[in-house]
Every structure is written in structure tokens, then in C-alpha cells.
Specification:
three-stranded antiparallel beta sheet; eight-stranded mixed beta sheet; alpha/beta; 5 helices; 209 residues; single chain
Length: 209
Amino acid sequence: MSMDITFLGTGSAYPSPTRGASALVLRREGECWLFDCGEGTQTQFMRSHLKAGRVTKIFITHLHGDHFFGLPGLLCTLSLQSSPDPNKPPVDIYGPLGLRNFIRRSMELSHSQLLFPYAVHELVPTQDQCPAEEFKEFSCLDGDEVSPQAAQGRILQLDPVENSYLLVEDEQLVLKAFRLFHRIPSFGFVVEEKPRTGKLNVQKLKDLG
């Protein structure tokens, strides 16, 4: 399996003319997985060798603006570059509880209609991930409202045995989220390649002595 990483932005708090806000792309098997989407991420895509239209999954570490304020704009640009396709799988978006409401309200208030489906999978934080006075309960935000373009996403609870959240698993890799302590609940993501069966010809080695 071939993978490579491109840093689109490593800045903190806000972008600068020479340094974008937080954004990183993992490219594998023709897909782009975006980790964080700070302001100006779509511009950084245009400056890179990557194609934003290949983004199939987005992972947001936490809900500080420099890590996700670029998301509504990127989604709208992807829509402008898309053609309606009823068979297209949704773009999967993973992030802390409250992210679904942010995306839906941004689309609603800006009267933006996306031409592709998306699904927001929210990670439920625990109260020990941030100072007590900063912890906010967002579970009541969504209710039963569903955006026309939004497929039903999952609500992901911490696995107490693994002490992690299982987000993605296929034949080649596993992607999990782990809790981090920050001023607001935050998550780190780990991509782990599964063991592969070797291609060593044992019999030939024995024949060669």
C-alpha cells in the first residue's frame, strides 16, 4: 500500500501569506484524507500537487477555529466542481460533537446547496479532556433535523477497553481516534497499517541452502 503525507498548513491561530492554518493530507490508493481544515485550506490545495476533488474523508481534531473554519468554504468549492451523481458515496467527516450542527448551520445560513452527499460522524468527548469550566454539552443541538445533503452519520462513543474510537477499518489499515487534553476537547488520529503476508519463497531458500 502506498501512502504519502502533504502539509498544507502548519500555522497556529490564523493563516499568513506564507503559512496556512492547520491542514494535512494523507494520500492513499487515489484518495485524499484531510486532517483539519483551517482557514485558507482550499487555496493551499490549489497551490499543491493535490486535487481537492479526491477528498473522501475529513478528520477534525477539535473545534478551535484555526482547525476547521476552512471547512464550509472547501465543501462549497468541491460542490461547484462536482456534477450531480446519485451513486456517489458521501464524503465522511469525523470530528467532535457539535461539528454536524456547525456544518448544517453554515450551509443553511449561506443558502448553500451541496451537489454531493456528506455524513458527519461525531466523537463524544469525556469531561476529563479539558478544564471543567470549558466543557460544553452539545448532544442536544441537532434534534431530529437533517440537512438534505447530509447522510445519517454515526455518534461514536469511547471504547473503554481500547481507550479509543474506531473510525475506519478496511483490509489494509485501521484508523482510530484518541483523546487529548486541551482547552476544549480534542482528538488525535492514528493510522495503522495492518500486517501483510510476506512474499518470501521459503522453499527456494531451502533449495539454495
